Amino acid sequence: MSKGLPSRAEDYSAWYNELVKRADLAENSAVRGCMVIKPYGYSIWEKMQGALDQMFKDTGHSNAYFPLFIPKSYLSREADHVEGFAKECAVVTHYRLKASDNGSGLVVDPEAKLEEELIVRPTSETVIWNTYKNWIQSYRDLPILVNQWANVVRWEMRTRLFLRTAEFLWQEGHTAHATRMEAIEETQKMLKVYATFAEKFMAVPVLQGVKTESEKFAGAVDTYCIEALMQDGKALQAGTSHFLGQNFAKAFDVKFATKEGGLDLVWGTSWGVSTRLVGGLIMAHSDDKGLVLPPKLAPIQVVIIPIVRDKDQYALINEKVNSIIEKMRFHGISVHYDNRDTHKPGWKFAEYELKGVPLRLAIGPRDLENNTMEIARRDTLTKETVSMDNIEMLVKNLLEEIQDSIYQKALNFREENTSEVESYDEFKKVLKDKGGFVKAHWDGTAETEERIKKETKATIRCILLDEKEEQGKCIYSGKPSNKKVVFAKAY
Amino acid sequence: MSKGLPSRAEDYSAWYNELVKRADLAENSAVRGCMVIKPYGYSIWEKMQGALDQMFKDTGHSNAYFPLFIPKSYLSREADHVEGFAKECAVVTHYRLKASDNGSGLVVDPEAKLEEELIVRPTSETVIWNTYKNWIQSYRDLPILVNQWANVVRWEMRTRLFLRTAEFLWQEGHTAHATRMEAIEETQKMLKVYATFAEKFMAVPVLQGVKTESEKFAGAVDTYCIEALMQDGKALQAGTSHFLGQNFAKAFDVKFATKEGGLDLVWGTSWGVSTRLVGGLIMAHSDDKGLVLPPKLAPIQVVIIPIVRDKDQYALINEKVNSIIEKMRFHGISVHYDNRDTHKPGWKFAEYELKGVPLRLAIGPRDLENNTMEIARRDTLTKETVSMDNIEMLVKNLLEEIQDSIYQKALNFREENTSEVESYDEFKKVLKDKGGFVKAHWDGTAETEERIKKETKATIRCILLDEKEEQGKCIYSGKPSNKKVVFAKAY
After folding, report:
1. What pTM did the predictor assign?
2. A12-285, superfamily in CATH?
C-alpha cells in the first residue's frame, strides 16, 4: 500500500519508480531494459490508444502493419538516419538453435547464419519507404496516409520504466505526398492532434515547437514536438512529428508521375508517440499518496465501497448500489463496485487512492437510512456527503470538473515554472534553484547549444511555433539573436 | 481489376494469392517470409480484434504486454517446448552495428556481443511464466487471466500470405489457476469463445475437438482446437486452446500457498488466434470475382455509387444520398459513398466486388425521379430496384440476412464435404476424389497416424468433443478403436 511511498520532495525519482511498481503499472523483466506492462498500466495505454486511433482515423489515416525486421543495408540508405539508429539496435544473425554437443543446452546453429543480418526495427521509415516505392507510381496514388501500432527496439543503456526502455510500444504514422506544402501541412496537423490529445485527454499542457538541428530526428528536415513539464521541473518530449522532405524518397528512389507529366520525388512525414506517455501522465499529476489520473484516461472512473459490519446489511446495500451502477453505466461512466469481504474498507480506500481512481463513493448503513453517500475526489482529496438522488449526474459533472481542474493545476504549475532570462548567470541560477522551462536568447549555433548542455545539462527543448520576434543577444556568446528559445533539463 | 483473377477450379492456390494481392489485403515484404498487411487487410484484422477483445473482456480477461525477447536458456526449461520451438527462431546475438573498416557500409560490432543470445518470441509461455512466478504467492493471487496482443516470429521455410508467415500478429492468452479443474474449464471456455467468434463473426462453421499427442502444442497436456473447412476441401486450424497442466509451473517453479496451508504448483492454460484467420476468412467465402466478406467483419458494409452523366446531377444526388447515409450511420451501418469523378461506375462496381463489400447501392437520375435505388448483394450477385423510403432498415435487415446466408452456405459445404469411411481404400478414394473432412476409426497410435500422413498427406485434425462412442477397427491397422476421428489434408 501507499505506506512507505517516498515523497516527491524527498526523492522524486524513487517516488516515480515505487509508484509505477506499487500501482501495478509495470515492472522490469528478466530481459535487460525490457519492461512488463501489467494489466492496470496496459489499460491506461489502451485508453490512450483508443483516443489517438480515433483522432488518426478522423483525420483520414488508416492502420497497416510492416515487418518487425529491417535488412541491415536499408539502415545505411539514408545518411543521417544510420548515424541515429545503427548504434543501438538488436541484430538478428541466425535463424535456428540446436542442442549443444555436450548436451548442456541450446547453442546457436552456425549453419543457420543469415546472409544479411536483420535489425529489429528502431523505427520503420526505411522498410516503409522501400514498400511505398511499389505503391506509388502516379499523383493519383498520393497522398498515402498510413499509421502503424507496433513495438520497436532501441538498445538503451540506461532505462526507466515507461520513460526509456529497450523495447517500447508506439504508433508511427508515415505519410507520402505530392507537394512540399502538403507534407508540411500534414506534419503540423499531426502535431496539433498530439497537442489536443495531451491537453484534452491527458490533461497535460504542452508547448508546441520545432527542434534545433542537433535535436531533430535522424533523417528529418524539421522535427516538430510537444514538450510537457513534469512536477520536478524537468521537461518530457511527449510526441514528435517530422517533415522528412524528400530524404527517404531519395534514399529509396520513390518517384511519381505528376499531373503535368513530369517525374518527381515524393514528400514525406512521420510522427509518433509511445508508451512513454504513460510515464509522463504519472509524473505530471500524481502525488505522494499515489496516482492521480484524469477521468478521460482512468480505467476505472468511479469506485464504490460498501462499509458494513454484518452480512445482512450487504443485501440491502448491494441492491441500492446496483441500481446506481446501472444509471452510471447508461451515462458512459466506468464504475467498479468493490464489495469483496476479504479486504477492509480502509485497505480499499488506500488501494484506490494509490491507483488514482478519480472518484470514490462510500456507503454504510446510516447512508442507506439517509439516502446519502460519501463522495471523495482523488485530485483534491476532499470529501462530502451527498444525496443518492441523481447521483449519476453529479458524478458525470464532477468527472468533467476533475478533468478540467487537473489540467488547470498542471497549467498553473507550468506557468509558475516558466522563466525568461537575459544572462547566462541568471540562466544557471534559475536552472539550479527552480528548474522548469527557461526562455533565453541563443545564437543559433550547435556549438553554443552543446556547450550550454555540457555546462548545465539543459537542452533546447524547442523553438516555439508562436514565439515572438525580438532582438536580443545570446546569453552564452553575446551574438545577436532574433527570438528566445526554450531550455530545460529533460527526461 | 478482377479481370484475370484465376478461377478457384482452375488453380485454387493461384486464385488465393492473386486475390490477396489484388484486393489490397497484403503483400510479401523484402524480408523473407514477412508480410506487409495493407490498410484494407489490416482493417479486417482490426474488426476481428475488436470483437475478440470484447469477448475476452466479457469473460474476465485483461490485456498486458510482455517482452519481445526471450533469453535462450528459458526455451530449454520445458523439455517438450524446446523441441517445438528452437528449430525455427530468430536469434539476436549483438546489440550494435558500426561502420565497416573499408567504408562500404555497416557491419555487426563484434564488441557488442550479448552474453546470452535472445530469441524473438515464437510464443510467450516461458517469459510469462517466469513473470508469473513473482506475481503468485498465494491462492488469493489466483486466477490470473491475462491476454496479450503481439507479434511473434517462427522461421517458417515455406510461407504464404496470412496462412503461414515468419512474423505474424496474434493474441495469446495465458492464465494461471489454483486447480486442475478450473484450468480445464478455462481451456474449454476459450475454445467456445473462439468457436462462437468463428461462427457468429466470420460466418465460418468449425469443428471443436482435441488434438492427438503428435499434433498438440509443444508443452501442453491437451490442445483443444477449432477446425474450419476451406473451399478446396482442405482444413484450416483456426484457433487453439491449451491445457498446460503444471508443466510451465514446474519449469519456472511457480508455486502458491493453498487455502489449506499447503504449497502447490500452479495450473496453466494458453490460447491464441492469429492473422491466419484473415486467410481463413478469404478462403472460406470468396469467389472467382473476388472477396466475399461477412457484414460483421466487412470494413465497409455498404457502398453507394452515383451514376451520372453531367455534373449538375451530382448536387441533387449528393443531397439525397447524404440524408440516407446519415440514417444508415445512426443504425450503426458502415457506409462509403464513392462519388469520385475520376473513375467510371463500371470500374467502381468491379472494384467493390473484388473487395467484397456486402451491399452495393447505385443511384442514377431516373432513380432520383422514381425515388428508387438499385441494390446488389455481393454474396448472391443478385440485384433489385427498391424504394428509397426506409432503405436504411432494408439494408440493416439484408446485412443480417447476408451474415446468416454466408454461414449457412459454408455449413452446407462442410456437410457435403464430410465423409465417414470404414476402410483404408475408401479413405484414400474419398481424399483423392473429394477431399474434405473424413471421419474414420484410428487405433490411437502415433505410428499409424504418421504412416497415414506419409501415405496420404492427411493428418488427424481432431478428436471431436461430441464424437459418439462406437466400436470399430482402425482403417489402417485393423486394431480396435472406440470412436472415429477427423482426418483431412490441411493448411
Report:
1. 0.96
2. Bira Bifunctional Protein; Domain 2 (3.30.930.10)
The answer as to CATH 3.40.50.720 being correct for domain B418-488 is no
CATH of domain B295-413: 3.40.50.800
**Helices marked H in B59-179:** 72-75, 79-85, 125-135
Determine contact: B225 vs chain A, CB below 8 A: no
Q: Does domain A300-398 have CATH number 3.40.1710.10?
A: no
Contacts of B91 in chain A (CB under 8 A): 92-97, 108
What are the CA-CA distances from residue A88 to residues A91, A276, B5, B112, B478 (Å)? 9, 18, 45, 10, 62
- B386-417: b (≥16 Cβ within 10 Å) or e: bebeebbebbbebbeebbebbbebbeebbeeb
Q: Which helix (H) or strand (E) holds A17?
A: helix A12-22
pLDDT tens per residue across span B302-313: 999 999 887 788
B33 φ/ψ sector (left φ>0, alpha ψ -120 to 50, else beta): left
CA atoms within 13 A on the CB side of B135: 28
CA distance A112 to chain B (A): 10
Point out which residues pair with B223 in neighbouring strands.
B242
pLDDT tens column, B410-437: 999 999 999 999 999 999 999 999 999 9
Which pairing describes strands B359-363 and B302-306: parallel, antiparallel, or unpaired?
Answer: parallel
- Asked if the C-beta of A155 comes within 8 angstroms of chain B's C-beta atoms, the answer is yes
Helix boundaries (H) for A208-301: 247-252, 276-285
With a cut of 0.90, is the ipTM above it? yes
C-alpha cell at B256: 502458491
pLDDT digits (tens, 9 = 90+) for B52-109: 999 999 999 999 999 999 999 998 888 788 888 888 999 999 999 998 888 778 999 9
Which residues lie across from B175 on neighbouring strands?
B145, B269
| Phi, psi torsion values for A157, nearest 5 degrees | -85, -40
Query: Cβ of A73 under 8 Å from any chain B Cβ?
Result: yes
Domain range list for chain B: 12-285, 295-413, 418-488
- Out of A76, A151, A155, closest to residue B95 by CB: A155
Q: What CA–CA distances, in Å, run from B190 to B49, B180, B218, B219?
A: 15, 16, 19, 18
B62-63 and B144-153: which strand pairing? parallel
Q: Of A5, A444, A49, A437, which is closest to residue A208 (Cα–Cα)?
A: A437
Residue among B125, B118, B121 at smallest CA distance from B91:
B118
Q: How many CB pairs under 8 A join A and B?
A: 187
Indicate the SS3 state at residue B363: strand
Q: From CA A163, how far away is CA A279, in angstroms rounded? A: 6
Beta-carbon contacts of residue B310 (< 8 Å; ≥ 6 apart): none
Give dist(CA B304, CA B388) in Å, integer: 13
Instruction: Label each residue of B364-412 as H, E or C.
Output: CHHHHHHCEEEEEECCCCCEEEEECCCHHHHHHHHHHHHHHHHHHHHHH
The string of DSSP letters for B160-196 reads BTTTB-SEEEEEEEEEEESSHHHHHHHHHHHHHHHHH
The DSSP 8-state label assigned to residue A356 in this structure reads T
Tell me, what's the pLDDT at B2?
45
Cα-Cα-Cα-Cα torsion B18, B20, B24, B29, nearest 10 degrees, comes to -90
Chain B segment 4-33 residues within 8 A of A by beta carbon are 27, 29-31
Counting beta carbons within 10 angstroms of the beta carbon of residue B277, is it exposed (0 to 12), middle (13 to 18) or buried (19 or more)?
Answer: buried
Joined together, the cell numbers standing for residue B433 give 476424389
* Residue A485: closest CA among A221, A215, A219: A215
Among chain A residues, the shortest Cα distance to B103 is held by A76
Answer whether A196's CB lies under 8 Å from A202's CB. no
DSSP code for A34: P
Q: Do A150 and B151 touch (CB under 8 A)?
A: yes
